[in-house]
Amino acid sequence: MKLPIAVIALALILGSCTPKETVKTLAEQNPAAEGFNVTDSDPAAIQLADSIMHAMGGRGNWDEARFISWNFNGRRDLVWDKQTGQVRIESTPDSTIYLVNEKTGVGRVRIKGIEITEPDSLKKLLDKAKAIWINDSYWLVMPYKIKDSGVTIKYMGEDTLKGNRYNSLILTFKEVGVTPQNMYKLYVDKREKLVRYWAYYPSAAEDKMGFVRPWDNYQNYGGILMSADRSDGAGPKNLKVDESLPDKLFTEF
């Protein structure tokens, strides 16, 4: 059966009016945190940061990830509710358990079976817990935090490390973290856009490297790539990403 010409024309008109689905650029998919120093960060560095986020699984998957658990250097076990900020830290050497919200600083602490309730002592311990979390989590999730608040990034061109060529990226900080004077240099795979090594500088004002370590053994955890159990034996180990965990993990010792 042939359709009337008027019906065909109407279908063509309606089809032409249907809005096309827009494809977001990598930059649009990965908006910077409020306070990221976009003014002093160069466009090439920002483009590379967005490519890293995309290679790691994308901003959407990262934002949806909920509970991340890991051991840091064999010294402590951490569980982080990324959406609420609740953190549990069990420190083996000093038999201490910290329950702290990394966003608010509120929490509880128990040392050798005794809960600390004296306000000044508790505050100092909770500040220590937050500092531990900042350090230990950065060793784990740094590639997802390149466009964080207080960060400035610079593209340093290609660089050679251990016989291979990488794109290099410098991260400096202002009024953020426990040691804002630090600087990091990332060595990024030119093809896969993954961080392969990171170099630590105690001071951005001095060109004196503290260490250079591998960022390797990437595994897929529910749609995001993360690096743990690295070839140098340092940093995060026994990594897990869960969709749900009991609430009491963050409220009870």
Largest β-sheet summary: 7 strands, antiparallel
Task: Please tell me the total number of domains.
Answer: 1
Sequence stretches where pLDDT stays below 50 over 5 or more residues:
6-18
CATH architecture label name = Clam
Q: How far do the termini sit from each other? A: 75 Å
Structural class: alpha+beta
Describe the structure in your own words:
This protein has 253 residues and is an alpha+beta fold. It has a single domain, classed as outer membrane lipoprotein receptor (LolB), chain A (Clam), CATH 2.50.20. Helix content is 23%, strand content 34%. The protein is built from five helices and 14 strands. The strands form three sheets. Strands 6-5-4-3-2-1-14 form a seven-stranded antiparallel beta sheet, with helices on one face. It is globular. The N and C termini lie far apart (75 Å). About 5% of the residues have low confidence.
Can you tag this structure with a few keywords?
alpha+beta; outer membrane lipoprotein receptor (LolB), chain A; 7-stranded antiparallel sheet; 5-stranded antiparallel sheet; 5 helices; 14 strands
How would you summarize this macromolecular structure in one to three sentences?
The chain has 253 residues and is of the alpha+beta class. The chain is 23% helix and 34% strand. It is built from five helices and 14 strands.
Write the SSE topology.
Blueprint (H helix, E strand, L loop, with lengths): L4 H13 L8 H4 L13 H13 L3 H6 L2 E6 L3 E6 L4 E6 L4 E6 L5 E5 L2 E2 L3 H23 L9 E11 L2 E10 L9 E7 L5 E7 L9 E4 L3 E4 L2 E4 L8 E7 L11
Antiparallel strand pairs: 1-2, 1-14, 2-3, 3-4, 4-5, 5-6, 7-8, 8-9, 9-10, 10-11, 12-13
